[in-house]
Amino acid sequence: MPRKTTNTKAKVADDVAAVAESSELNQEQLLEFYAQMVLIREFEKESERQYTRGNIKGFLHVYSGEEAIAVGAINVLRNDDVVVTHYRDHGQALVKGIEPKQAMAELFGKSTGCSKGKGGSMHLIDADKGFMGGYAIVGGQLPLATGFALASHYRDDDKVTLCFLGDGALNEGEFHECLNLAKVWNLPIIFFCENNLYGMGAPAKDHLAAPDKIYKMSEAYDIPGFRVDGNDVLEVHDLMTKLVKQIRGGSGPAFVEAQTYRIQGHSIADPANYRPEDEVNEWKLKDPIPSFKDWLLANGHATQDIIDQMHQTAEQEIIEAAEFAEQSPFPADEELYTGVYAE
Amino acid sequence: MSTEMTYRQAICQGLTEALDEDPRAYLMGEDIGPYGGAFAVTQGFWEKYGPRRIKDSPLSESAFVGAGIGSAMAGLRPIVEIMTINFSLLAIDQIVNHAAKVRYMSGDQFSVPMIIRTVTGAGASVAATHSQSFEGWYASVPGLYVVVPSTPEDALGLFRSCRELMDPVMFVEHILLYGSRGQVSEGVKIPLGKADIKKEGSDVTIISYSKMVQNSLEAAAMLENDGINAEVVDLRTLRPLDVETIIKSVKKTHRAVVVEETTKFGGFAGEVVSIIQQEAFDYLDAPVERVAGEEVPIPYSMPLEKLAIPDTQRIVSAVKKLI
Ligand SMILES: Cc1ncc(C[n+]2csc(CCOP(=O)(O)OP(=O)(O)O)c2C)c(N)n1
Ligand SMILES: [Mg+2]
Predict the structure, then answer these.
(1) Does B30 lie at the interface with A, CB-CB under 8 angstroms?
(2) From the list B62, B124, B296, which residue is nearest A336 (CB)?
(3) How many Å apart are CA B285 and CA B276, to the nearest integer?
(4) In which domain, by residue range, is B260 found?
(5) pLDDT per residue as tens digits for the range B14-64
(6) Does some domain include residue A291?
(7) This model's pTM is above 0.90
(8) Which of B33, B87, B300 is opposite residue A118, by nearest beta carbon?
(9) CA quadruple B104, B105, B109, B111: dihedral sign
(10) Is the ipTM of this complex over 0.85?
(11) How far is the CA of A261 from the centre of ligand 2 (A)?
């Protein structure tokens, strides 16, 4: 479990491997998952506020509504496993271990950001944490991820690469080229499609030949494909636990489709009024955070007090992250020229 | 007779005319349908023309640009939108190896009467992969036209001419110009390869295109206060290039500054400088100056981004160096 929120009453089991091997989660772990989901949501709410204040510029794509995927999937990985993703990357970055402070500072374009302020919201990267980015060209992350998996295969180092992509990215050639390559060379990689039903403003059902069969798209490459409820953190975790184990054991690539919904527009500039109201309302009821909370309460894993406390702690951590970002300096002018080539 | 409109409205009008006047014309691109276009150029088109004429395409730049080319070879008049020029890299094989070559390679059997509209430019805080200006690259490809309007009038006037061409056009709009306003004369039509003198002057020629024309005009206004009378030449099309207008102006002013937004090394401005030194060497009173972007990817951080791309002040300084 790469990221531990230090903020819950619950302390996460120290034995990280225990989580990875079994999908059975103890109470502390369950609460930790909830805390992480809340932390992401708070981060996104704050980033939207800061955008309106002019502290964040350019494109801002928030992850609200999709938290169960990052939390359910990435917590299965080891610290040294690899995550590669697209520009909707805040949630995944936080779970893989980038601190809210470093992520928020990056959104502010500050020198203390995880990419020194040079990448921004769409390019959160922390190689030490195994979070290899954050790439803004749709589909561009897929070959890179395939390359990370190739390196693991080459070195025989038993790392797994988890590559996220959107439903829109399924239509880029890279998706098909990479599935083929990964299978031909038996690479340790999971291609994980976050199907939030929309590309930018276009419904996936209008752009995919077989929108109901996304998880079957890998079949022709002889790669096993799975579909999960992307708003159910436990279901995601369960499937990923099995897959990661198999892949670490040398089974070769897998493909996952998780169905979810982005609560907000594509980016902050998008009011998303092309979406039918009932659809939006229907998915509001499936919001992964209240659903998981209800489950925790109903099964006696948490009390309302504990829940409230977790929300407060997350809010506090995010306020501190925003303060840190605000107080941090912008990169010095000389930074413009550093990092173009190796020093 | 002229009407005031925005750059966006001018392009929108050009597209409307194409669809209304030519049954072979259709639009294709990402999110141009119900969403109305990433830059809201095609708002209302889907409702008006429907899915046969407005093809809202999946995220597959190579496939839909290539399909546009094929349909043009088959006699249609596709107007394809690539959301930004950055994403044209996913389609560059289709554009350079196919659209630009097929007439020649087929011994003149095929035409590709297709307009590719796309969006260039930095300054929107969208970081390295979303802030590039590749129009200069495309200008190096025989078989392509490259059009880079800076005003609503030029946008519509040039678009009308592009529709009559039988070869592929890269029609490159600037991300920061869509809201800019200007007068558009009724029936305006501007041929490719005709630069425009946006401001007359006698002391120095500032040559640029697209958004940098605005900066050049601002610089010219500032220079006026110092008693320097600059002429501003807007290239309007990079391929074909209006060599005559450039040379005539330089012969008059004896000094030139070439301005472009992208990185200097290997930039289109180098081509312009080369032409000036060859054709007007004896008329020059100073080496030709260049103002261009720094040799770095565009950073996200706002203060750094400002340093990376040329601004009005840098144009003013370059001119002052010459005088
Ligand atoms: C190659 C390319 N084409 C177009 C874009 C513009 N764009 C950015 S995100 C996006 C939609 C992607 O949708 P999806 O893959 O479903 O991811 P989501 O945003 O829904 O998470 C588009 C069209 C881009 N960044 N890169
Ligand atoms: Mg999507």
Answers:
(1) yes
(2) B296
(3) 12
(4) 196-322
(5) 999 999 999 999 999 999 999 999 999 999 999 999 999 999 999 999 999
(6) yes
(7) yes
(8) B300
(9) negative
(10) yes
(11) 8
